[in-house]
Fold each of these.
Amino acid sequence: MSDLDSPSPADALDGASTVEVRTSASAALIPTIRAVASDLAARADFDLDAISDLRMAVDEACATLVDVAAPTSWLRCTFLVRPERIEVHAQVQTKHSDAVVSTDTFGWRVLQTLADEVTVHHDPGVDGAGPTVGIRLDKRSGDVMR
Amino acid sequence: MTRADPEYGHLSPLLERYAALPADHPDREQLRDELVRGFLPVAQHIARRFSNRGEPLDDLVQVATVGLINAIDRYSPERGTDFFSFAVPTISGEVRRHFRDLGWSMRVPRRLKDLHVSINSAVSELSQNLGRAPKPSEIAERLGVPVSEVLEGLEASEAYRSSSLDEMLSSEQGSATVGELVGEADAELDRVDFRQALRPVLAELAERERTIVLLRFFGNMTQTQIADRVGISQMHVSRLLAQTLDRLRTRLDPETRVG
């Protein structure tokens, strides 16, 4: 599973509080993941806008990934809670290595607006491990006022 | 119910007399009181059927009684229908409407509903003072309650569907200023070259939802700023945005979402 294998929390995640949620890659389970996202943000004392933004961003990212996920595969969502920000890695296995998440869609615009940083990662998969697509989000605890 | 009904049979002739009396007849009021008292066990029985949904039984009995009074007022015996087959749906309908108007989509204890109200007002006050959305810790301090309670209240807010008053009050207000609000965001939308035909899909949305989406994603405004401009609460903006994104997601063809 290459990238899907967790590094041990202590070394790779530099001390951030870590929560990992793994579900079937099914749209029906996304509400559970986004509930975890908003709960973590609220407990980390994010402001209400940031809590709601993170919740919607996780929703959008997961929905995007579920669309390209291989049948009967996993959706894995890791939350790294750091001081003043939360980092989210969402990832699915895809059936073909040419399945991509495009960044010229409205959905991507939504992600860019809601998160402070967002990137997409495509991994073609090596040594029999299936290809994966992941979205990484970074959300700060309060919006910098423009 | 027939005249032979041991419990309510004696009320049958009263119902007929009541229905036959002209609206301004002096006997009506007393007769109506008598009928309400007589049929009260029916309202109480229906109220009890709804009593496991987190609303106090007293409130439910009151609502059911309103339903009963409506049923007594509207019943016309000459149509030949039995009073019960008319009254029972009328009363249950009133109780159902009560639940719907409360706007809670799942069972939430009264304590949390009250907290939801106080949090809402604290949020709008704090947003004004701070010029940004408050944090749970700030809300807790303002209300003088532990942060854990605020977190609980915020979680309960997720179960709140604002289909009721908030919605009705804000819909007129929102549309009045839409033109000036979205002008800039609209221009920004034109500059973005999406693979999807977003504009027609956006055009299908209700005006206020469209405004909120444009201001958030093309006008660079935060939810709190939008709440202020459109004249609704931040939590309401948050709910509307989430709902609208969900709708857009299903409307935009998945084939074009994915490369």
Amino acid sequence: MKTVFVRPELCIGCRHCEIACAIEHSESKTLFDAILEEPVSKPRIFVEPVIDYLSFPNKCRHCDPAPCMQVCPTEALFRDKETGIVAINYLRCIACGMCAIACPFGIIRFEKVKQTGNDREVNAKCDNCISRQKEGNIPACAEACKTGALEFGDVNDLIRVSRKDFSMRIIKSQGTDVEVPKIPDNIRAFRAIMKAIAETGEKVV
Amino acid sequence: MITMYDTLKAKKIAEERALDPTDQEMIVKAIDDGIETAWDRLASQQPQCGFGQLGVCCNRCTMGPCRIEPFGKKPDRGVCGATADLIVARNMLDDLATGAAAHSDHGREILEVLLETAEGKSQGYEITDEEKLHLIAKEYGITTEGRSKNEIAEGVARGMLEEYGTLKNRIQLLERAPEKTKKIWKDAGIWPRGVDREIVEAMHRIHMGVGADYLNILLHAMRTSLSDGWGGSMMATECSDILFGTPTPVESWANLAVLSKDMVNVVLHGHNPVLSEMIVKAAEDPELKKLAEKNGAKGINLVGMCCTGNELLMRHGIPIAGNMLDQELAIATGSVEVMVIDYQCIFPSITHTAGCYHTKVISTSNKSKVQGAEYHEFQPRTGLETAKKIIRIAIENFPNRDQARVRIPAKPMKLMAGFSEEAIRKALGGTYKPLIDAIVAGKIKGAVGIVGCNNPKIKHDYGHITLARELIKRNILVVETGCAAIASGKAGLLLPEAADQAGDGLKAVCNSLGIPPVLHMGSCVDCSRILVLAANIAKELGVGIEDLPLGGAAPEWYSQKAVSIGTYFVSSGVYTVLGVPPKIFGSQNVIDLLTVKLKDVVNATFAVEPDPVKAADLLEAEIDRKRAALGI
């Protein structure tokens, strides 16, 4: 099973993924034209801030079985057999919102999209860049991510890396042979400061 | 933007955002009125880009924009080949040069007004402090004997203006530093050669394919900062004193309650005092006073904001409404007829805020026009006329005030300001000996300059006030400028009575001199007063500034000017703790240089510590280190 795997510790909140996603789902697929289109294309991945300024890129996990698909009364949501993606037929969507109620991750948004040809707001969730994948490319968000917070690949391979690293650390404690890079000291220091700022702000004197 | 009418929730938000109760009250009103403030905009900016925060984003040329992967993977170089070290250093120099330019260009304008005044071409201005004029003329080697004050002032103004683009490769005011400190600058190759030159050269050095050595770039950053602190900023301070008078202790009031319910409120916001000084004069015009009454007002109420406010407070005791994060709250009182802006730290959205009330924003500098503001250009030749025109606009706007929407906090806080270096020396009896004796005896452990801005990332004033209280408790004298000083004014720390919050040693010294434990030394260009104070004490002891038990802190800084101030503090030998991280954490080498290795060069470093209590620990440890080295 292929997926966009999230390593939240590597997310630095730059929101490149959001921009790349919006461009990919625009008519022109170029930044400078996309911002002028009507309806303007919106990101389908959400870099959510957390209290100490850490962030998490939240998006459709393409569940199987998918709760959204199960409750969709018009079969607007369907599974693409070849890729396993939970895809959407915008013309069938009646904007009833059932999918959003069922979604465990809260990532469904209703937006105007070019495909309907009208002003209706429909489920405009992540389609895992189905057209890019069929052309042999990885999803735009994972391609845009420069820190490796979003990685596209076989989920078991990606998990294996974390598992192996964990095992290695158990055996060699501070071992250096890890595949997921250790957080460098400077980044660790920066995050400690940002955490302190967040906590300082919360204090009521 | 938060729009809500749940007062309890709004109160809780206000308590999280600001320390001062009057600020909290106005934050609640702003929320109730649906006014967008910097806190709302910070929330809607989350998450902020990590590449930018770490300083590893380079957007200088069109091969880019580039960014370095901060976790040790690719890309580890920009298209041009720049590493994280280089990109961080270039960005820092860029920020610092912007800040130095802001200070020094402010200085240039003061000098231009001094020159035009000396030539008899300005309107409303005069040479006020002749004693200082003579002292500085002597420093610049300008003959005073048998010459009129205007002739001498012309010489001083031209002498200083010449140093902006000088060919002689030196700035006279740097000679005020102790010999030992000057030698450090010369040995390290950071002796500035002119005010503008270092800024221009900084711009050159950050171009692609010029400097590729982060260390060399940061040394130039230090040189540029010295050309600000000991150059442009110091000139701004000294010549403002010559024109408008050197500050002496003065009593006044602080916080948003200084706005008046029944008078015409004019808020003077920004940094340069040249026009505001004329507005102070214009407000005394009997005809305008009569006009105010005719329009139903009980008079004209001038209040300051940010460093223009500090300049007017220091010299005239004009009450101060607040610091940087108070600018929107002042308008949200619904009571401001006119906000006059000159430049720096004025939110570009200020006219948007004013648009929700009857408030008119009047911009006065052709460097800082703002859309939606009325523009009345300040010129020295017509300064007083322009000032009168602005007061008239404010008076005529008074009937438009919707009293039903006005809410002003009840109680202003009393304060004492006006502690120029000269005033402090005078309070000590004309010499630093009593202060030095108190430091040697351990009654006062040392001194810390708390300076810098507000930043909505830090609870408004919390960083400043918590640190100041911690330090005075530990018998460390605090001197302040800028937003930090205004914060202390609001919190009651600028009162002689605040000595009760100090440790026994400092308390006794303050009580015997009748001074507060936290001394307001002026605006942010007046950080130069702190340098002069330190230099004079060092010279009296026969040591360098870097040997003194001093520290600096910028607990809530946001601006590029603060980058320059922090760097000239450290370059002058003063350990400086920042409450908000500078954009350098993408480079371990730059962190090491600024927080460790600089100690071997200038006997001072930077530190970053957002928790003000821990920051006080760091500052106390540094003061102890320097005391031990002095053998006291």
